[in-house]
Amino acid sequence: MSTPDWRSVVAKDYDLSHTDGPIRLYFHPLNQFYHHNLEQLAGWADYLSIEAGLPVCRMVRNREGRYDTEANGESWVLMNPPQQTDRLERSAGATLAELHARTTGVDLAAFPESSVQSKIEHLENRLDALEKKYDVCRNEEQPSSFERVFTEHFPYFSGCAENAIQMAVDESINFPNAEPLCIGHYRFVDYERFPADNPAHWVVDDRSRDLAEGLRALTWQSARSDIEPAAAAFLDDYESFFPLSGPAIGKMYGRLLYPITFIECCERYFNGPANTDERELELVLRQGEEKAKDQERLLSFLADRYKDRFYAPEWLART
Asked: Is 94 inside a domain boundary?
């Protein structure tokens, strides 16, 4: 995929005479947008940028009134990022909370790609598929180095996944009326590293998705002694703007417990292209195992922080 020269394409296909102030433009591939309703995405981006003052990239219409433009044999969307993306005016937790609060109640019908309706089944299917690979690898006479690490650690991570799935089932029974959906991210990291929101990466889901992934990222980025203070600061800032309900806490906890990094890494090995770098995947697998204790400490911290507001697995509750 060859990124087009935005100047030549803009000169031909766009009219920017009504754009106020200096602009910085770039093209984003259309096929990398999670949701396909560009009109709705652009409307939300404009609202969040103009009305809420959040650091959001806005989408630019072409002369035909569309957001997608053909160039170099591919479809692209012209993006106009916010002017100041080198610093946040508020913390990551507060920024995320305002994004969620401002978009709560977003219409799911406009974003049918969301997997929110089939989430539990999807988690179960992914775990079942890896369990079959585990059975095969255990019986191999000469497993690869990756497969040896995989079979060694699969029982632990599958146990975490089973606990997470059971929590999701229990939550769906105990709280059948789920919280309203909002705009989040396919995989939220933090606003310090990626300060500008890109609508291409937005996913309509409940807010626990972003919170869990933000906390998971903290586990991988923080030194062991820094995990609990960093998590507390992130959640304090978030809840000072948008307090968490019991169901949101339970869903956040269950998603964090589900070992998505381990599962995605294994899926890339077993289902990825033949030229997949096995050494790189094995390194990710080993790093995940090294971070397991840190993850447990974080989960125990959350169980203690929100005790009496949801039910954590007994082996993660602090005594």
From this structure: no
Point out the domain boundary residue: 18, 51, 86. Answer: 86
pLDDT tens digits, 23-75: 678 899 999 999 999 999 999 999 999 999 899 999 999 999 999 999 888 99
Residue 140: count of CB within 10 angstroms of its CB:
11
3-state SS string over 78-114?
EEECCCCCCCCCCCHHHHHHHHHHHHCCCCHHHCCCC
Backbone angles phi, psi at 124, to 5 degrees: -65, -45
Closest CA to 299 of 237, 251, 256: 256
Question: What 3-state DSSP class applies to 184?
Answer: strand
Do 189 and 236 lie in a common domain? yes
Six-digit token pair at 158?
Answer: 């599958």
Q: What is the pLDDT of residues 66-122, one digit of tens each?
A: 999 998 889 999 999 987 654 567 889 999 999 999 999 999 999 999 987 668 899
Residue position matching structure tokens 């990466």 = 201
Query: CA of 228: how far to CAs of 134, 231, 258, 316, in Å?
Result: 33, 5, 19, 15
Minimal CA–CA distance to 185: which of 175, 176, 177, 196?
A: 196
- Whether 119 and 29 map to the same domain: the answer is no
What CA–CA distance (Å, rounded) separates 117 from 147?
Answer: 33
Distance CA 58, CA 16 (A): 13
State how far the Cα of 25 lies from the Cα of 10, in Å rounded to an integer: 9
Paired residues of 204 in beta bridges: 183
What is the helix (H) or strand (E) element at residue 58, kind and residue range?
A: strand 58-59
Three-class secondary structure of residue 311 per DSSP: coil
Query: Among the residues of the chain, which ranges form H helices?
Result: 6-13, 38-46, 92-103, 119-138, 145-174, 208-221, 227-241, 246-257, 260-271, 278-290, 292-305
